[in-house]
Design a protein that fits this description.
- The protein has a 6-stranded antiparallel barrel. A 5-stranded mixed β-barrel has the order 1-19-15-16-20. Strands 6-5-3-8 form a 4-stranded antiparallel sheet, with no helix packed on it.
- 30% of the residues lie in helices and 39% in strands.
- The N terminus is likely disordered.
- The termini are far apart.
- With 378 residues, the chain is of the alpha+beta class.
- It has 4 domains: 97 residues, conserved putative lor/sdh protein from methanococcus maripaludis s2 fold (Beta Barrel), CATH 2.40.420.20; 88 residues, Elongation Factor Tu (Ef-tu), domain 3 (Beta Barrel); 50 residues, OB fold (Dihydrolipoamide Acetyltransferase, E2P); 76 residues, Helix hairpin bin (Helix Hairpins), CATH 1.10.287.
- Helix 3 packs antiparallel against helix 4.
- The radius of gyration is 45 Å and the shape is rod-shaped.
Amino acid sequence: MRTRWLPFLTLITLTLGACGRTEVPERSTSETTEAVRVRLATAAREAVPLVTQASGSVEPARRISPGTKILGRIDRVLVREGDRVERGQLLASIESRDLGAAVAQAEAALAMAQAQLENARVQHERMHDLHGRGSVTDKSLEDATTGFHVARAAVTQAEANVTAARVHLGYAEIRSPLTGWVVAKKIEAGDMTTPGAPLFTLEDLSRVKIVVNVPEAEVVSLEPGGAARVEITGRALDAVIDRIVPAGDPASRTFSVQLLLDNQDGALKSGMFARVSFEHGEGQVLRVPASALVHRGQLEGLFVVSGDGKARLRWIKTGRASSKAEDARVEILSGLEVGERYVVEPPAGLVDGTLVDGTDVARERALDEVEEKLQVAS
């Protein structure tokens, strides 16, 4: 009976075994041993200009806050923020009826003094004539002469009083001392003014200055008149160092450096962010093409080829990058040593530990140069 069912049991066992088995495809030998073709370069130091970079703000070459010397009530305000003004233009006026009356009073006193002077002059001439004929005493002539000099001095004093009264009346008019822009208005009609208090802020933007703070280790290589490069809102501009303040900040150990820029078109505005670059000599730095960098979030790395011919992803710390878009190169601060080989342009899909077969970039360039020379010679 058991022998009768044995063939059927064997068939069922084989069927279940076939259904439960999962086939695992074998990895081909080429997938594990075939090297990826890449271009390699050897890390080396390059001579590059030493550049000091600092950031600052655009400031006007001249900023003035006009005010007044008198106490009074604002009568009119003729400008507002953003207005362009010319030198001598009236900005505001203060109620000045009392000052106008003082001018009129001083002018009347001058007229009286001038009349008295004329009378004293006539009296002096009469006494001088009579004294010559012996009709008056010496004392009478002396009195007439003194009266003439006193009257003349009174006229001088009255003229000075008129000038002073007119000057005080002029304080009731606030005029622009420069050609520029109104950037702040601190009064309204009806406000009371205080002597010495600024009423407006005016800026002359025909020339602007850039103020940056430079560390003490690098400021020693700068001097007034030196050239600099300024980047403002994407524009690269040439500037000149105007002055270096000799007193540094004891807390940050930095020194204030001011640069001047022409701004006749008014494109630069006060308060804009500026980045300044100072070149001073040359130095040797380790740099690689920007195309060699691998980015993983905030991390940057390079594929460095080890002695076994495998590309190893190594995280690095980068520094300044060159501004040439066609041949951008990046300074390597750490993570790569001189003489190590790295992948110049990592292909898509290259992972850590991949076996690579590299072509040396320097050798390619040398062959290209030889080929060009041969073509020229032929």
